[in-house]
Amino acid sequence: MKVTIIGAGIIGLCSAYYLQEAGYEIEIIDKSDLSDGCSYGNAGMITPSHFIPLAAPGVIAKGIRWMFDAKSPFYVKPRLNLELAQWLWQFYRSCSKSKALQAAPVLRDLNVFSKLCYRELATNPDLDFNFEEQGIMMLFKNKKAQQAEIETAELANELGVEAKVLAHGALQRYEKNLKLDVLGGVFYPGDAHLYPNQLMQQLIHYLKQRKVQFRGKTMVKNFRTENNQVTAIQTLSGETIPVDNLLIAGGSWTPKILQTLGIKILLQDGKGYSVTLKNPVNRPSIPSILAEAKVAMTPMGDDLRVGGTLEISNLSPKINPKRVEGILESVPHYYPELKIGPASTQDVWYGFRPCTPDGLPYIGKIKPYKNLSIATGHAMLGLSLGPVTGKLVSEIYQGKKLSIDSPLLDPHRF
Ligand SMILES: Cc1cc2nc3c(=O)[nH]c(=O)nc-3n(C[C@H](O)[C@H](O)[C@H](O)COP(=O)(O)OP(=O)(O)OC[C@H]3O[C@@H](n4cnc5c(N)ncnc54)[C@H](O)[C@@H]3O)c2cc1C
Known about the structure:
Layout: E1 2-6, H1 10-21, E2 25-29, E3 45-46, H2 59-67, E4 74-76, H3 82-94, H4 97-122, E5 136-140, H5 143-158, E6 164-167, H6 168-174, E7 184-188, E8 192-193, H7 196-209, E9 213-215, E10 220-226, E11 229-235, E12 240-242, E13 245-248, H8 254-259, E14 268-277, E15 288-290, E16 295-300, E17 303-312, H9 321-334, E18 348-355, E19 362-365, E20 372-376, H10 386-398
Parallel strand pairs: 1-2, 1-13, 2-9, 4-17, 5-15, 13-20
Antiparallel strand pairs: 3-8, 5-7, 6-7, 10-11, 11-12, 14-17, 14-18, 15-16, 16-17, 19-20
Helix pairs in contact: 1-7, 1-10, 4-10
Bound molecules: flavin-adenine dinucleotide.
């Protein structure tokens, strides 16, 4: 049996990994040259601690304030567009405490399962992607952020995700390399991190060696269908590729791809930036998130990556230098010995996080097509949830009982 996968991001590759393990023949099609994209330049954090969805109570009020600050970590590019309006409406409806509490155990289960998968992948002698289980620190400077982080830590402990609320001195004992200038923080010992660029390249190499076929620089434009089955893919260059089973893991482009099949899903791109310092003299020993600034700092191998910002940008490739400045300028407020930047445009990486309105991914079959599934919408958690998503996709095609089964993941839920 063959599965064709559109999208060679982390979700497509992990799906290929577990499907080929289950004995499927796999072909992966991607419009890129398989060397970059959202799954490469991200912050590399594997985060059981992130069980609160993007749509959470208080986000709307904060988001509106941030819209008027050029260096803030959040922005929606204003435009008259029905899909954006519908997405924003559903996002607004999802920003309630009850919805967040419903989502939290599902995100926890996905995250915890996925981290265990990474632990297993890291023991594969053919894969070496700097997987480190050192935890991460949420650092805060002011009382308001402290209050919010303590509440999240309490909920984490209730949900079985270990969280230690620490004052400055205790935190400093974890962070051995650099002085911290913070009020305190929460340490999540169960989190991990890795070097995503290495993971992606190694997965591609590993899958190629196992006869997975890759077609890079191939843009899917249309489909042929018959009796509620997708029978072929048509590419921009005019090729027709026959299909037995199809998985669409097209990240932020998935709505465009599905549109040609007459299917609508609510999904917006959340553009983010990162800058990677190669072999810097100073770098933190443990990854952290700067709570007020919403900036992620991750030591990766010998390098340091700093990333942040979420702009609903309509897939705009423009780099907004003010927002990048905002990310880099926040760093010395927390790590006074670490001054970064300014970065030139060619040093700035950007990627589009595929964001659903409720912060939970879409994983499942797509009606009315009998041989079509999608896996996307992982927003800030795509790297973390790659392996568990791949496992679920493989279970879907095998007709097995799903390891994690929730109506909150249904692609038709809106
Ligand atoms: C700054 C930043 C920091 C982040 N940090 C983290 C983190 O620390 N931890 C974490 O878990 N997540 C993080 N993320 C999120 C994570 O990177 C994404 O959720 C994840 O990469 C999405 O993976 P994907 O496979 O769904 O999409 P993508 O990686 O975007 O892959 C989709 C693929 O589909 C292809 N495609 C699209 N349309 C077509 C078409 N028509 N024909 C052929 N191919 C097509 C694209 O070329 C692309 O390669 C971060 C993101 C950003 C931007």
